[in-house]
Amino acid sequence: MHSMRSPNLSFIILLFLSFHTSLLVSTHKLHPLDPLTPFELNQLQTLVKKSHPNVTFHYVGLDEPDKHEILSWMSRTRMSDFVGPRRAFVIARADSKSHEIVVDLSKKLILSDKIYYGSGYPMLNIEEQTIATELPLQYAPFKASIAKRGLKLSEIVCSAFTNGWYGAKHTKRVITILCYYLDGTINFYMRPIEGIMVTVDLDEMRIVDYRDRQIVPVPKADGTDYRESEQNPPFDTRIKSMTILQPDGPSFTIDGHRVRWANWDFHLSFDMRVGPIISLASIYDHELEKYRRVLYKGYISEMFVPYQDISEEWYYRTFLDAGEFGLGLSAMPLQPSTDCPKNAVFLDGYYTTRDGTPAKTSNVFCIFERYAGDVMWRHSEPALPGDVAEVRPDVTLVVRLVTTVGNYDYIIDWEFKQSGSIKVTASLSGILAVKATPYTHKDQLKEEESFGTLVAENTIGTRHDHFLNFYLDLDIDGEANSLTKSHLKTVRVSDDGSPRKSYWTVVEEVAKTESDAKIRVNSGSTEIIVVNPNKKTKVGNSIGYRLIPGSVAGSLLWEDDYEQIRGAFSNYHVWVTPYNKSEKYAGGLYVDQSHGDDTIAKWTLRDREIENKDIVVWYTLGVHHAPIQEDFPIMPTLSSGFELRPANFFEYNPVLKVKTPKLVKWVNCSA
Amino acid sequence: MHSMRSPNLSFIILLFLSFHTSLLVSTHKLHPLDPLTPFELNQLQTLVKKSHPNVTFHYVGLDEPDKHEILSWMSRTRMSDFVGPRRAFVIARADSKSHEIVVDLSKKLILSDKIYYGSGYPMLNIEEQTIATELPLQYAPFKASIAKRGLKLSEIVCSAFTNGWYGAKHTKRVITILCYYLDGTINFYMRPIEGIMVTVDLDEMRIVDYRDRQIVPVPKADGTDYRESEQNPPFDTRIKSMTILQPDGPSFTIDGHRVRWANWDFHLSFDMRVGPIISLASIYDHELEKYRRVLYKGYISEMFVPYQDISEEWYYRTFLDAGEFGLGLSAMPLQPSTDCPKNAVFLDGYYTTRDGTPAKTSNVFCIFERYAGDVMWRHSEPALPGDVAEVRPDVTLVVRLVTTVGNYDYIIDWEFKQSGSIKVTASLSGILAVKATPYTHKDQLKEEESFGTLVAENTIGTRHDHFLNFYLDLDIDGEANSLTKSHLKTVRVSDDGSPRKSYWTVVEEVAKTESDAKIRVNSGSTEIIVVNPNKKTKVGNSIGYRLIPGSVAGSLLWEDDYEQIRGAFSNYHVWVTPYNKSEKYAGGLYVDQSHGDDTIAKWTLRDREIENKDIVVWYTLGVHHAPIQEDFPIMPTLSSGFELRPANFFEYNPVLKVKTPKLVKWVNCSA
Q1: ipTM, 2 decimals?
Q2: Whole-angstrom Cα distance, residue A231 to residue B640?
Q3: Does the predicted TM-score (pTM) go above 0.90?
């Protein structure tokens, strides 16, 4: 929801190492979807700064080849060199204007440079947030406010909040700075200095508005620190040691950014805006003896986190985290053995700092094989002699990234199953956004003023939602696909001969245009299936993949409310659009203070045809969060997700022939 | 959905071992909720057979002490001997009548013996199904039917199906026998001999009706066998070895049937009808330095599996698996290293055969610590110097049972989390119930006659549902609880001062009577919370546990349809009743051919008060299943579940003080 960085940017490693650059200087061996290398980022910085000396960088990512080029390259041979341009897409600010710059890295030239005149601003970079959050500490009225409260300036930490948009015709590129108190805890989010709002103009980098509306006691530090070193007994019994062992190593291979495991083959990229991008996911069909395409591309296109407090200091907190703060930019180095199991392999990610210098986030991804003790399939057959019981344990492959957007931590897992499923799980943890209150007991609170739960003395956990929109460019066995709504419909039996009065059947409805494919998932009686209408199984079923939603929470805000206009993708759980390279983000390209004129709700008003086309499914996973005391001072993980599951994609169970894993006797292990 | 056993009952071990009986002769050390021991079952058999020499046994289970006795025992000291009677409840058939017999095992006498005159019949025992399924093989008209089809009698396997109830005033205790073909496969379920129905009177144990309505080609054996030994290349790449190691052993202890792990303490029992029973689940609160009660008792009270084919041979297949076939009776010995991970500990279960002799199912439960690579909670704090990143991996405890009710395998997991959650997962695998058809391509099928998907040539996977009703006697910090519906309600902002037009708030509604607590979960905007209205946290929140449903599928059948009257619990996802020891099964005590007069839908018509009472929550987890080709010839697991999660039960995050597990370096391991 909001982000902030201290000036101690120790995790940003400047890349001047000749070792790295020499390794990466040749682009020959690059996969066309590989993220920009540090060398390329350096190249690009030089080129852009030549034409704009005072530029600041806000987004740099791969401007990938057109889909038809990629597909044609794939169809030739999956391992050949890609012959095509290597381009970057840059959003930068110069002279208080947003520039969209396309750079050809092969030719070392700027292909285009245009100014964006529409509503909204680009992603905030980390450095401007850091600078802005330090401005109040030098600002006399702020210092006076702190003194008036009897607080120590040295214990203040401030954080940057985007402002949303509430109908203003003209906007400037401003953010709100809110401040917190340390003084005995590192969990400053639990100690908001309520009532003070500092507005900073990011282009001018100065305070342009300052309000100190009210003094509210700062909640106490006791019990807020979550570090192990700060806990006092009694402790929980420590669980005995437990680990996963793979003596022969993992079963996956990573070749650059291409990952192969069991029957899966896919490409994993890192993007500073959306975080992980899964591309070209194909599954090997042993019957057909070939890889078959499933997912051309999948990533989190936007995240919408509206808080449900309408007071002056809170109403605007309706964040679009991906487009405002960057899920990749906010990704954290994963902690070995805790964030990921011991058998995990880690990958780094690169992004661009304010001045265009490349920076690395180490261990931004982990990849591991997961065995949770689950069963892939089984059957016991007591009806036959010989104790028939066939069981296959379920081992899957997980790609993980953790993005910490300010207080909240999102653990994003893309999980590949041998059975053909792709399961995506978002697990939420981190720190609540809380509001300070003078009250210490629920009885003192007026419901219409609290907007949340008293999670501790003087501490209200404010209600909010998380809506994660997933861009899913499914290419089920080819590009031309259709969305089928399979309605499970009750039939009243008219046949006098049957003792039954009712049964359900399946009525298939093919979504012909975009308006047919706006779906709210709530009754569980409609199956959403993406089919390839041009291919059938041997017995004549449409080849498809089913989207199995894991949550039915949808936005409860009015559709004409400003924040909901911007986060309009949460009006429905499912939308479908015809593939359009320019439609990448369900909330639009520029979301900070946007007017919501570039959202999926607007695009789909054209009601384009989507039947038997190259289509994109946009699925929104939603979680309502009415905080509870267990969320204080740090939240136990809450998980939600969805599954893409083959549905008549294979002729029969694709894991029928998976062999039982070899039993291994472990001897002589010592700890 | 249906069950059948061959005469090879090799897994039933008759218990005449003096070793066992001497160990178990004393009941002093028994927990009052321990299941009946083999010694007690033998005792009981002798007593019952003395008064009814020709009795057949259909259910034997613990007749547990009244709840107030258990609670008073618990409150005294958790480890003291229970002084109270040890009783068994028996349902037996004698002279074609159902007897309910209560036996006092301490006093070695029958306390009561009454005949049940209501509708419906008791659970089928395994032996009578076995005998009944062999009758057709000796029956001339059946042999003629088989010969007419050109099939080999030696390759026939038959299975017992309950008939449901379709309005008949008078019923006899009959079942339908349907037969299948082996001849080249062990997966006979994929080879139905369609068109033949044999009706067997179980009391008279003879065929009372026989129909051979039509000849349909038996689907071919090719591709149906699921055994590893029968597969041909190409095979999938085998995943490399992977295992879980716990060098210091598990962190749980099992003392008889009492399990203690981390902060949890609960009792696990086995019942031949419902399978696993979790009782007296309490969690240790380190702040209060005491165990606090959560779940007095939890188990699957009934399972409803209606098929959606109204043809003569199929319409009645609307099974109530728990009450008809027994989830415990159908439980399978778990396969080490595949059904459960290598670190699992196994427990046996005992049930009663037709003549009252105790039998054992080895390894009926497994208990293991699960580490799936998940995170319990985490936060990185880039705003502060020092690379703050605290992460706690999530280790949980799983209790598993697999019940194979005929063709279907249900993997039932009760998972305990250190954070206080109890998560229940039902994973469905096994074999589809299919219908033979002359057709080999979808184009030949008429939708109104197929009732399913052509999953292979001549093979229709018939549509059906699975509704699992969970009995959840939650005692949140004491017996007197209330059900709160927390409605997330949109508020239109009338305040001209706020730029917001809407937000959502929480409106709590306490269910006062049973009719208030009939809930269909579909919009995701109502939180279902069981609270203890007599206890508050320090800041004044009601202490509670939230029920988080994992599925929104509800029954699509008309409420006045016969099978739906019997499976009426599936009308709603949630029901609440005041605790009543006699209300154990949502579908009633006698469900085979019952008229649905003892269901939760009938009990709750009294509309009893449920506010601040000892209440029971009945939750139905539902899955619609429209089969797909991937389900052929054996189904990849499909999981669904729900979570009971503390909500203001603790003053703060109960796993805040959980220490990071010790990092263990493994050396010298050899495979």
Answers
A1: 0.95
A2: 37
A3: yes
